[in-house]
Amino acid sequence: MKIIIFAGGVGTRLWPLSRKNSPKQFEKIIGDKSTLQQTIDRLSPEFSPKDIYIATGIRYRDIILKQLPNFSEDNLIFEPEMRDVGPAIGLVTLLLSSKFPNEPIAILWSDHMIKNIDAFKHSLFTGQNMIEEGKADFVFLAQKPRFANQNMGWIEIDKTIKEKDGVSVYTFKQLRYRPKIEEAKDFFINENYVWNLGYFITTPIYLESLFQIHAPEMYEKLILIQKSWGTTLFEHAMKEIYPTLEKISFDDLILVKLNPEKIYVVSADLGWSDVGAWEALKEALTNSEDENAIKGNVMLESSKDALVFNYRDQLVVGIDLSQMLVINTEDVLLICPKIAVPKIKKLVESLNGTSHEYLT
């Protein structure tokens, strides 16, 4: 099986730590390694660098090569500009389909935390076996929900196929993306819903067929890029063709159109967290909702359920904070309630074209 790790997002929900020039996946958010490096580490020793492909933006080439010195540039796929996840997955699909069309591939992301690595690997190989044995065409990897998360996608599952060593396999029913809080609460208490991590296992040839059916115009352009891969024309084809692809999410382009037949969901308690947003990072770092998460020179009094990250030398003091975020960097101080995290992206976008654009 080949692993494809996507590492091209800007990560505006983790602003002001995450910026265009150094997104969150290259930062040491947890521990002494970047989340990209930690993603690679948790795949070892079963997968070596030759089995892993990294898809990212060309502007991050030097960062990637510095953080992953054991990787060959042949396993790095650089997009000339961002066109959303739909085209990004389409590009990788068509390129890898030309090399190993029928070999299982796993799509993973570079900005997540997983505490239960054994369960993660068990889930990964369960999905691989289902693809190799012809039992499934497409397998979602999911997390058993820990709370009513309204900022991510959910998967509605149907019949239980098997349960072993804490890993369960279900038939797939439908996707539910970013529900309202009341819906999320209903999902959480309903055993027929799990968190959608954006991880899945399939084969390049099957995924290619979905692009051919559901995105024929994009598919034809990607075929032209595919034909140039490995030649001197590849860079030119990427620069000329890739920026013309429609900006669209993979969910809207492909996933919502999936036929449930031979689609399965492998779910387990992976200890998974999306550390790409401040409130999610706070949940990942603490053992209870009321516990505070702090970093740097910070003093809190009579405070609960707060995240305070200080990247400067001066002392940051918080009194009577509740459900608050305080992020202090060299050039930006962000203060907001946890519930306001979805507004951060819009704020960062509003800085474009202003005197503060350099902060994005």
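The record above closes out task 2.4. Task 2.5 opens with a second protein, given below.
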Amino acid sequence: MSYSRRTALGLFAANSLAGPALAVPARRLDARLLERAAATARGLDQLHALVVAVDGTTVMAERFRGPPLARAVNIKSLSKTVHATVAGLAIDQGILEAVDQEVAPFLQADFPPRPDPRLFRLTVDHLLTMRAGLGRTSGAHYGRWVASPNWVRTALAEPFVDEPGGRMLYSTGSYHLLSAVLSRASGRSLRQLTRELLGDPLGIEVPPWVRDPQGLYLGGNDMALTPDALIRLGELYRRGGVWDGRHVLSRTRIEAAWTPRTASPFSGDAYGYGWFVTRLGGQHSFYGRGFGGQMLYVVPRAGLTVAMTSDPTRPARSGGHVADLHHLMSAFLIPAVA
């Protein structure tokens, strides 16, 4: 799909996404607000690209700096949203039983010599919500973790700092354990599963990404996808799991992913399975987020799906660059279509 830049006066050459989309957006757009959104976005020196789809039609696609729009870029922890979707698809297809399924049968070979009994209580839900209770492997702990000879064993050997199902302890290690569970349950790598269950139905390329010393693809970080691929993922959720007339993801899995189950210790926003849940511009909104400001927003009642990519080397605090990106949504993009 080729993108068109905005024309003068905020009138857009619209492009329909693959699948059951309208030739033009079904609702009136406020060109003035869209113009202000683009102008504001252009002034954010950390923001690389902004792609906006309304009712399944691309109405804005701009690269301000950084790689071309057609190039896959590191989406950092926005990978968690992708991998949570793959886990949901794995449940739909019977590869996993349910979110309350215990994961010890897939991980027990990597348990410590005298395992804490709580390891046997860990479930898919605990990994998806990062409520395993194990010590964190993200933030200041990330470098030590990925320097270890076995990332799965190291994550499982972390001491419990909370009970399974307790508070959210933001940790990529939980999603890497999920990668191991998915790979061992299916006999396929996380990349193979992602391509077969998600990439192929949506027409998304899934390049290789980081693997651990044992060859497992890193769960929850460092995938590379294009902004278009992110829009397609968001549209799959907005459309109720249907793509090109095919039911790809069940509504049950979407409802489960968008149901608040815990809250971020950093932003305070609710969290489901791979998605943060909040209100933006007066609308119930869902977003995935990665380091530096890699963002995917879905605002169902506004028919809005937005992908933003940013410099992946610079932090994006909830009160800093991410606040600026939320402001783009709240002040301009949502009012422009809502």
